[in-house]
Design goal:
Layout lengths: L2 H8 L11 E5 L2 E4 L4 E4 L2 H4 L8 H13 L10 H14 L3 E5 L2 H20 L5 E5 L8 H6 L16 E4 L4 H10 L2 E6 L2 E2 L5 E2 L2 H13 L3 E5 L23 E4 L10 E5 L20 H13 L2 H18 L5 E7 L2 E6 L3 H10 L2 E2 L1 E3 L2 E4 L7 H15 L1
The structure holds pyridoxal-5'-phosphate.
Amino acid sequence: MSIKELDKQYIAGTYNRFPVEIVSGKGSLVYDDEGKEYIDMTSGIGVTSFGIADDEWKAAAIEQINMVQHMSNLYYTQPCAELAKLLCDRSGMKKVFFANSGAEANEGAIKAARKYAAEKKGEDCYTIVTLNNSFHGRTITTLSATGQDRYHELYKPLTEGFCYAEPNDIFELIALISKTKVAAVMIECIQGEGGVVTLDKDYVKELRELTAQKDILLIVDEVQTGNGRTGELYSYMNYGIVPDIVTTAKGLAGGLPIGAVLLGEKVQDVFGVGDHGSTFGGNPVCCAAALSVINRIDSKLLEEVKYKSQYIISELENAEGVEGISGMGLMLGIKTVKPAAEIVKICLENGVLCLTAKDKIRLLPALNIDEEHLKKAVAIIKGACK
Ligand code: PLP
């Protein structure tokens, strides 16, 4: 049986795969089983921050594999402790809980927020407000947090205690808070799966002030926007605010599974022994890889992300067949006249991998994509939009 037939017969049918089998790659280039080359504008949906098989990233992971690949959380390991310090130093948060994915990081944040509110305001203060059109994961609780009905159908009963507000409408939120006991508000500064929709700066600032006044926690889901993606280390840094809890995953370890809940000052000690845990959380190989990723996301790299973003925007915003561009840094959504899926198919045929998000083309290339490949990919995308 071919790989495609094996996959069809034995893998649960949750993914609508393109008819391409990727076998190898280097940087922003990947190759299929027939040797065809593609420029990767997806980075595994924002995961391979420094591209495929990056030498520095590989060396960090392999060095740790040669020492210890896993220990339980009953013992100390160096990469885990050092990564936690680095994340706190760079984000302004105070403590870290390590998980394995974005959904798990959000589960951890929801638990932390509920425990904080239960202890401070009573056990009936558990509601978490999220935004319409948000996406927070696919576990029952994180899909309950997700403000899109289509993810809820057929999975009821959902986890109780979530309600949804309209993005950028501070008055709706004020009204909601006045009639419900709210533990936390959880947002994505740029709704990725929701179609690369950027929250307004004033709204995010007002939301921060409002939640701070009422001792309601502000959780920012940086699973997709984090780790340099938007031209800052975390997207909230573009808004001049400091959240109470930050969750991140995807690009953090550059292609190895990791999730992290960054706990701010108020909640730094909310978790005590036995309150939360994860067998693989803080895995030393994933943490060593993440240390190398975060150490490389310096001001020079972030400037490059912004420069490349500007290049893409300037090339595409007035191009034929393009209606508009949203997003920040190297997380961009392109609204096109033709259906996005049709453009992605043309790009694939012409050797460029792109994503969609709702009705847009979504671009999430590696942060270090080189100019030659970026220019070539943008030219092909431009041609496909016509
Ligand atoms: N939160 C956001 C904003 C996401 O974009 C995603 C995944 O796309 C998740 C959470 C879930 O992450 P994971 O698939 O690692 O569980």
